[in-house]
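Q: Entry one of two.
A:
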Amino acid sequence: MPASVWQGLPGTVDEHGMLPVPFGGFLATDQRGNRVVFDLGGGLAPRLLPDGELPPVRELLPVRLDELGCAPDSVTDVVLSHLHIDHVGWASTSGVPTFPRAGHHIHTADWKHYVDGDADDAVRRKVSPLRDTALLWDGDSVAPFDWLRLVHAPGHTPGTSVALIESRGQSLALVGDLFHHPAALDHPHWRCGFDWDSRQAAATRTEWLERLRTTRTPLVGPHFPGLEPVTLR
């Protein structure tokens, strides 16, 4: 989108007219000892800025998990919403899984596209070490736990999924890159330059907006400002 569009949306850009884009992740736990991390950020020193400089804020995911008393070898499961580099950065470190005891839930369509295929060399190098710990799933949905359901939502990538957490009468949708910013919730046909299939991605966004609005399910993505959920009205 043109910068002027974002600058016209209150509260979206900073004092320099730039749009902050965090690379975040989420942790969910249950009383049975399961510790589930959703998406793995940019990883070790990602050089993702246009001028080649390092982001001023980086490499925080292991720090934040440690602050929560969640050591890497205590993570039981990792859910990857899709296999883009800013979501799989901590999948492996120096060719070894960062979370060695965790099963890694990945939709088969993304595994075939990015790991077995040649869509992105950087992603393949990051994710290939997970071959022995990958829990590939296929079809429309899968339920790793009674409180967690993963739903196929293709478009952004072939195997993009939404994670639905439902427990004690409450729910939350972790939408990955279905939406990159809350402002986009009013504009499902805004095209993301990283969409694998822009038409399917727009149709999927429209479908999920209606679904989440109907159920009044809050949603949040790892690029949302402050990682704060939003409830559609």
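Q: Entry two of two.
A:
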Amino acid sequence: MNTREWTGIILAGGLSSRMGTNKAMLELDGSVVLQHVTEAMRPAVSRIIVAGGPNVTTYSDMGYDCVQDHYPGKGPLAGIHAALKASDTDWNLVCACDMPLLQTSFLDGLKKLAEINDTYSAIVPRVDGHVHPLAGAYHKRVLPNLEQQLNHDHLRVMRWLEEIGCCYVEVEELERAGVHHAVMQMSNMNTPEEYERIRNQDSGLDSDL
């Protein structure tokens, strides 16, 4: 699978209620968090789509290729759905906008694992028993089932993953695919305290990689 066969999807349409401000627009090392995620993703894909939800105007004004939810107010599944509908490729890398420590190697690793496990429609990391569905690889063939979930207000991401028969990949598999510091790279931030933790981790990750 080469770059031309992949689209990158960034989920940035959340309300950021616990943070108190739009997480994607927080400053980190001289640029906003959304830009960090974009820069990590760009080398791995041919196109990046931002599922912006109510923030579409903000991101469009910054030059991002944005889509609005077809099912407003229905959480991350609605964002994944809108972006997959707009994607021109079968396989898509999905990540949340609040994971600024992600590196390109992580996304390349997911692509390798998708190629190995191509009978599945979703490849999602599972670290110490904790599943990270917003840092995964998804095939467009999940769309019919995803639309059913949204139409019936079945909005739990974990339930949907079980419905589609997701392939969960452990840390050891990520490492074999070239991904290091996986736990740190998947760090996300929902509160001001977690934002400060991410800011402190960022410098440590840069020195190690």
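A: Comment on entry two: The CA atoms of residues 12 and 102 lie 15 Å apart. Strands lie at 6-11, 27-28, 31-32, 47-51, 66-67, 91-96, 122-127, 130-131, 135-139, 167-169.
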